[in-house]
Amino acid sequence: MQVSVQGRHVDVSDAFRKHVEEALDTILDKYFGDAIEAAVTISREAHLFKVTISAHIGHEVDAIGTAEADQPYAAFDAAAEHLAKRLRRHKRRLRDHRRTDREATETLQAQHYILLGDEAEESIGTNGSDEVAEDLPLVVAEMTTEVPTLTVSQAVMRLDLGDLGALLFRNSSHGGLNMVHRREDGNIGWIDPQGNGSK
């Protein structure tokens, strides 16, 4: 497994890099022996160190763990524990659902746009050099993304593993587009528009 460690405004020592690699090897081998790669980013925010771990554990499946602490090792260890907890829960769900090893791989290609936020748009409009058309969002980036075919429980697992706010997917039971999202109260919402399934 390939592990990359990157520091943002923080020097990454060889000892820290070795600690990261050994800990991630242990965690990922325990839950997913075939993990492909992992990326660790450490940054300093005021008096705290923030660590984000992103582990690619399968086709289009990423697991994220984050934490902050006043020491880099403590921040990494807490983020690694957060990641391990997510992987443990994911593995338990797979076992409880008695899934086969084969996960749906059919995907739908869709356009993905990143729109300029209101605050950034206001700053562009007030500097006098550029004008932003009213009522039209400014497109910052345009790319293609994949919409996977999943069951609702698989979509919830991916949402949880990736620490995502929302996930659009094609429901494998009826072929229609669905979305799961994280609600402000901490629960997961599921949107299944009426009439979007294939007849």
Automatic annotation (TrEMBL):
Main location per the UniProt record: cytoplasm
GO CC, one annotated term: cytosolic small ribosomal subunit
Stored Pfam families: Ribosom_S30AE_C, Ribosomal_S30AE
Q: Which UniProt keywords apply?
A: Cytoplasm, Translation regulation
Question: Gene3D superfamilies per the record?
Answer: Ribosome hibernation promotion factor-like, Sigma 54 modulation/S30EA ribosomal protein, C-terminal domain
Which positions carry the signal peptide feature in this UniProt record? none
Per the record, the domain of life is: Bacteria
GO biological process, alphabetically ordered: negative regulation of translational elongation
Which SUPFAM superfamilies does this entry report, sorted A to Z? Answer: Ribosome binding protein Y (YfiA homologue)
One GO molecular-function annotation for this sequence? ribosomal small subunit binding
Q: Where in the cell is it found?
A: Cytoplasm
Q: Which residues form the Sigma 54 modulation/S30EA ribosomal protein C-terminal domain?
A: 137-189
Please state which protein family the record places this protein in: Belongs to the HPF/YfiA ribosome-associated protein family. Long HPF subfamily.
Subunit organization: Associates exclusively with 100S ribosomes, which are dimers of 70S ribosomes.
Q: Which NCBIfam families match?
A: yfiA (TIGR00741)
Q: What does this protein do?
A: Required for dimerization of active 70S ribosomes into 100S ribosomes in stationary phase; 100S ribosomes are translationally inactive and sometimes present during exponential growth.
User: What name does the UniProt record give this protein?
Assistant: Ribosome hibernation promoting factor
Source organism: Limibacillus halophilus
Q: Gene behind this chain?
A: hpf
